[in-house]
Structure formats: structure tokens, C-alpha cells
Amino acid sequence: MSNYWNLHCRSHSETYSLEWNRGGDEIQRLIPLLPKLAELGPEIDQHTRLDITIPGVAYFAAEHNGCDLIAVDEYGRFHDQCAKYVACKCCGKTSVCRLAHGHEGECGHEQSTGKVL
């Protein structure tokens, strides 16, 4: 099953669409390199054709240099989240655990308020 991943700035709630199938780990490894890519941003011709969208990533990296960047999948799950499905004990609605990977205790679910229970 496919699962497309993108680059997200949590500081500004903006996402750059990479649509990298199963690419969460790769995007996470790319993030520490983005400051160097940001330095090249102004020098990269916007019309350059490459296998991935280097010019766009470079401009996004420059715009969000120093921000909290993370890989996010097409369902809005961040790379550092547990992401196991859990049913609400009150209503039975199924949602994704938004707690950190490896968290202690039971998985939590989100109410409509966005608060993790």
C-alpha cells in the first residue's frame, strides 16, 4: 500500500509537497542537509529539470531555515508520532495515536478539539 510523505514546517504549519512514496525516513535524513541546500537556493535555476524538485525544496529550506521541520504523510501523521490506530473508549471512533514514538502507557486519541487523551 502506498503512503506519500512530504516536508512540513511545524513552526509555520506549511507543507512542501514531495509526494515521496514511503519516503518518511528519507525525508528525515534530508532535513539536516537542508541548511546547505538553502544556501544554494538563489543560485539554482528554477527551470532546471531534475528527478526531484531541488529548486522548490531549496527555496522552502531557505524560507524555513532554523524552523522545526519534519516529514509528514498524506494522512497528516508526523514521522515522530506513534501513529497506531486506537478506538476512543467513549464513542468508539478510531483515530491515530499522536503521542511520540515509544511513548509509555496506552496510546491516546484526539478529540475534535485536537487535545490528545
UniProtKB/TrEMBL annotation:
This is Uncharacterized protein. It comes from Nocardia rhizosphaerae. The lineage of its organism: Bacteria, Bacillati, Actinomycetota, Actinomycetes, Mycobacteriales.
